[in-house]
Amino acid sequence: MKPLSEGRVIELRGQFPALAREHQGLPLVYLDGPAGTQVPRRVIEAMSEYFSRCNANHGGQFPTSQDSDAWVDRAHDAFADFVGAKDGREMVFGQNMTSLTFALARALAKTWEPGDEIIVTRLDHDANVTPWVLAAQDAGVTVQYVRTRLEDCTLDMEDFRQKLTEKTRLVAVGAASNSVGTINPISEMVSAAHHFGAKVFVDAVHYAPHQRMDVKAWNCDFLACSAYKYFGPHLGILWGRRELLESLEAYKVRPAPHELPGKWMTGTQSFESIVGGLAALDYIAEIGKSSAEDGELSQSQAYDSAFRAIREYEMRLASQFIGGISALSRFKLWGIQSKDRLAERMPTFAVTHESMPSIEVARYLGEKGICVWHGHYYALNLSTDLGREPAGMVRLGLTHYNLAAEVERTLGALAELG
Ligand SMILES: Cc1ncc(COP(=O)(O)O)c(C=O)c1O
Q: Measured between alpha carbons, how far is 106 from 311 in angstroms, rounded to an integer?
């Protein structure tokens, strides 16, 4: 694999019109990727082209509808490939991860009985907590919460193992924390859960822009993510094992398709977003192809190669950020701090200033054209457990389109605060 050089990243950045936006004479620094990344030109063009050429509803006997349906069919296969699955019928599109999770939780809860239990974590985004908690309430099922080890913001695996029993029907866990960047041991959790016959739902929303998702390797039962976190438009994606998607009862209006892949998709889809999502996958594949040493790569191999290059590059930036922030004595970095443990985290950093409220730090950076988030970013239980409510933390989320100079500029701005 050829590493992503700074020159190559600058070329890639040229594909993102938003990265050229300036504020007070300097380019904006986008560290808000965990809340939504910017999109390359091809995504904008694909969506525009969809509207110009094949904007039509599903299932018509005329060219625009046929073209639109062909795009959507292609997208089912492409997104299956992207999550490491083989069958496009296992891919469900929807408004966003949260809506898809609510729909699945409601359907799964119909198979639960009083006395059953489900497991969620206190590290997760609330979109992977409350849909399950509400479904459990409806079904009279007990919810167990896996604790977070507050010293490094990792999941307490001993607590997880203790809570897992033959009563457990579902484990809902995030592949990576959108707040502090922790990567969770998904394969290990899946095999422990399967041992007790529990299904596993993986929230890969924060994982997807940084590392290759692989439902086969993880052996999970469901996975959800969102294309707007990986250089695409607002579009939710759910993958489920075919036999489960087939056997579970989906809440549907009567005339809508009751077979896969349409079964879990409600109402009219955002076809333009599905087409834009496909273009985002193409962008990622292009990174992989240009990072490969030799030979023609399949799309799937291109994703592998892309995420190897992205990961290596992002970890260089992460190391630079950790080095810089640890020298700023008035700031605290939450979660995994050691450069030796980079393999356990994403380049997503939550920091706090010893006296300045998070919103003020974010405003200060914002005025300097550095886009960061403040608050709990919906990882509400984590923020509460860390004693950070209501002020929250400041999140600086790096992606592969960020540059070492931007990390430096951000550290410089933080240094002005002490
Ligand atoms: C880890 C994680 N899970 C779930 C979500 C919710 O995703 P969506 O906006 O697609 O519902 C987010 C959004 O920030 C997230 O970061």
A: 35
